[in-house]
Amino acid sequence: MLAKHVLAVVLIGGFLALGWWQVARASGGNALSWGYAFEWPLFAGFVGFLWYREIREALGTPAVVQDPAAEASAEPVAPLPPVLGTRAPKLGSGFRRPVLVPRRQPAPVGPAAADPVLDEYNDYLAWLNANPGAKAAQYPGRRRGPG
Predict the structure, then answer these.
(1) In which domain, by residue range, is 30 found?
(2) Phi and psi of 138, rounded to 5°?
């Protein structure tokens, strides 16, 4: 755990130092460095945010403080069934339960309209399957000639 704190402090300090370095370069005439001068402090802020969240989670402080009276009057909720390959978040970690939506059943499909081209192709495939060594030119079915 100490390594995470050291890493966070080093990263925040390094990112702020890089931002200050970019300000110095931008003041010297490098226009592109103005973008980096704002980018590095944003990185430092992001690391600080993640560090804060890690500390809060380690201490067990809830993300949202709720009214204890409201929790006592709420009706109990049945636990969700476990899902393979996922971990349930700890209570009070700021996550809410997922909304379960029933799957829609596909609409029933009626009989397909007759398609003579598809029927001919399926007959050809069945013939090829029945005659694995045959060539396509040997197919005895309907042949289309020129014209």
Answers:
(1) 2-59
(2) -90, 0
How confident is the model over 55-78, as pLDDT tens digits? 888 887 655 556 666 555 566 666
Residue 129 to residue 124: CA distance in whole angstroms: 9
| Overall pTM > 0.70 | no
The closest alpha carbon to 54, from 11, 117, 97, 106, belongs to 11
Q: Considering the domain boundaries, does residue 89 fall inside one? A: no
Q: Is residue 92 part of a domain?
A: no
Q: How many residues does the chain have?
A: 147
Q: Does residue 44 contact residue 12 with C-beta atoms inside 8 Å? A: yes
- 53 lies in some domain: yes
Q: What is the DSSP letter of 61?
A: -
How distant, in Å, are the alpha carbons of 8, 124, 143 from that of 133? Answer: 69, 14, 20
